[in-house]
Specification:
Layout (H helix, E strand, L loop, with lengths): L1 H20 L14 E4 L5 E3 L4 E3 L5 H18 L4 E3 L8 E5 L10 E5 L3 E6 L2 H14 L8 E3 L2 E5 L5 E7 L7 H13 L4 E5 L1 E2 L2 E2 L8 H4 L3 E2 L16 E2 L4 H13 L3 E8 L4 H6 L28 H17 L4 E5 L6 H5 L1 H10 L9 H18 L4 E5 L12 E4 L4 H8 L4 E3 L2 H4 L22 H6 L9 H4 L2 E8 L7 H8 L2 H10 L7 H17 L12 E7 L4 E7 L6 E4 L10 E2 L4 E2 L4 E7 L7 E5 L9 E3 L32 E4 L3 E22 L10 E7 L6 E7 L10 E22 L16 E9 L1
Parallel strand pairs: 3-4, 3-5, 5-7, 10-11, 10-21, 11-16, 16-17, 17-18, 18-19, 19-20, 20-21
Antiparallel strand pairs: 1-9, 2-8, 6-7, 6-9, 12-13, 14-15, 22-23, 23-26, 24-25, 24-27, 27-28, 29-31, 30-35, 31-34, 31-35, 32-33, 32-34
Bound molecules: acetamide and zinc ion.
The site of zinc ion has 8 residues, from helix 10.
Length: about 775
Amino acid sequence: MYKYFTSIIFTILIISCVQDKDFRLADYNVVPLPQEIKLTEGDPFILNKSTKIVYQKENNSHRILAEFLSKDLSDITGYTINIGESASTLTNNIFLKNTLENENKESYTLSINKDNMTIDGSSEAGIFYAIQTLRKSIPTSAKDYIEFPAGEIKDFPYYKHRGASLDVSRHFFSADFVKKHIDVLALCNMNVFHWHLTDDQGWRIEIKKYPKLTEIGSQRDSTIIGRHTATFDHTPHGGYYTQDEIKDIVAYAAQRHITVIPEIDLPGHMLAALASYPELGCTGGPYIVGSEWGIYEDALCAGNEDVFSFLDNVFSEVAELFPSQYIHIGGDECLKNRWMECPKCKNRIKELGLHETKEHSLGEQLQSYFIARVEKMINAKGKQIIGWDEILEGGIAPNATIMSWRGTEGGIYAANKGHDVIMTPEAYLYLDYYQSPDVDKEPFTFGWLTDLKKVYSYNPMPSELNADNKKHILGAQVNIWSEYMPTSKNVEYMLLPRMAALAETLWTNPEKKDYNNFVSRLYNLSKHFDRLGYENCKQAYGVQDSIVIDTTMNEIKVYLSTFDNSPIYYTTNGEEPTNKSTLYNTPITINNDMTIKAISGKNKGNPYTKKFVSHKAIAKPIQLKHEPASRYSFNGATTLVDGQLGAITSYRTGTRIGFLGTDMEAIIDMKNETEISSVVINCFVNTRGDLFKMKRLTILTSDNGKDYKQIYNDTYPIPGKDISPMIVGIDAKFPPIKTRYIKVIAESIKVLPDWHKKKGQKAYLMLDEIKVY
Ligand code: ACM
Ligand code: ZN
């Protein structure tokens, strides 16, 4: 009894000490999670002002690594950690070594005991990653001395290519920012920086032989505001990197074990180059540097020999600047219209004897010729090409590595043909999409919702591949396209923390991945992002929801949670919640118009806010006659009775479904005879895009689900040209009627009108809710 009692007191004492000492306890639960962490019983290693980092004698690279570690530790602790080539005492050293034998040249061990800490890498990269693990394991509130629990960490990455791209064409970012960006890639153990240096809206790399590329091509007069608006800011935007700046950045990245892969995007996405040298285009111009987003029709002429000499000269300078084994040559989204009308291109087609086949159009084959020729030129400079998956069209260049972005099919196809592949499927790894469903509070983006959980869920290894072809999957990367990121702060916010989710996927054994565990470690990493001055989204640390639309019980229930189970306080009347608001313990049922606002007890992240509208058809069984388009089907028919309306900023986050070239025809079963007198439906309209209002609304009722009687019918004019994104509400009122079934037919215009730039193609009808009153 006595023993039991003392052990309780002892435990309480330990817990209170641990809490007091939180700020000085290191913890190896970092992102990405190391492969193996074995803690031992012994006393911890104490880092203090007398600790010395000891690196290999007369080894400059090791000295640089020791300096990195010293700087990281000093920045956090506030005192200087000395470095040197030999230990001054037997204890209190951090030894850096490079003796680990491991085929994986990025692996390391980290051994910690009360006397010393030893980092052993299979290469300098391994030592570097051990340093990243150490710096992330320290609490950001560290003061005074820090205790590192005794034990051993064995670690290595799962994938070889761990990348992140940055588009500096749509918006230019300073060389200093590029270095800061590289720093955070390194902190997350990423090893490839894919630098998208050229595009329609700006050429950003100095090429000595072609000065106009930067004199003219790096400047645009104006930039479109928002999406599909035709409103411009009339403000010049420009900038480029000199070759000296590029060399400096490449060397900076190399010290951080990051390879810089430059991308010169061709033969499309070349408007900035064409504006500089119009003779390289099919029409001869004049061209102006792009000020809108999307795809332009002009491309490099495939029939002009001067184009290939130009590219050869450009790539000679590029190859000199970048030690990378790869040069990315783009190859995406090249429209073929100009080629098909150009005498030189037609000549080339003739000369090559190309013929339209069932698999490949003439344009695709000409593109294939173009890419294969560029590949040969780059191979001759001792480099290999990477291209977006469009380069598969018309036949793949012999040695190309494929970057699969339009899903993973292209990557799987290429791997099966023996080509190396880097996965970057748009739906999971494009970070220019929203990361929080509360889109009206987020910086404006291209659309779609790709939250942290979705990025984390991605598995780069397709199960379709056999073991041999699996070897061709080198890894994956996240992409930052900067159309809607005018500032470097925007870039950081979109990148972080989602890049860390892919970083863990690429580093850690997939069997060890666990989302909640990841978020708890990420929360610690977010404090490092904050400390280092990186904007980062905190959505994942706040209240999360799971909404159940139960069409059997005809209820909507909102489940709330937090990653660490901290208490949740909420309101449903729109008031800001505090720690005195209702404590969440059972799911919230939507039975009125309601705005749920919730905070976690620890106030992590932004307050959760979600608005629900209540009406008579909420969570009632609903059936659609025509399926929504697969891109816009989300949760299917129930989306129309889920009590959630869509935002004006995006129609692509799951609150609306979209019908392509078909009507929306729904039957709602009210379950009991119900009196109704109005139906309200909102259409999301944007006629610069292809989203149109319904042209007719018909409502019918039935008591048996077979015989329907029309109770409402009205028609609406087809919206005109140039309508920027807007929500158009249709409020159908009729004399009260009792009914069990309601049939709602929203008739689409189906085909885009003659004045539309895509005339004759299918039109979308985008709807969020069928509100029945
Ligand atoms: C791409 O997103 N066009 C590669
Ligand atoms: Zn041409």
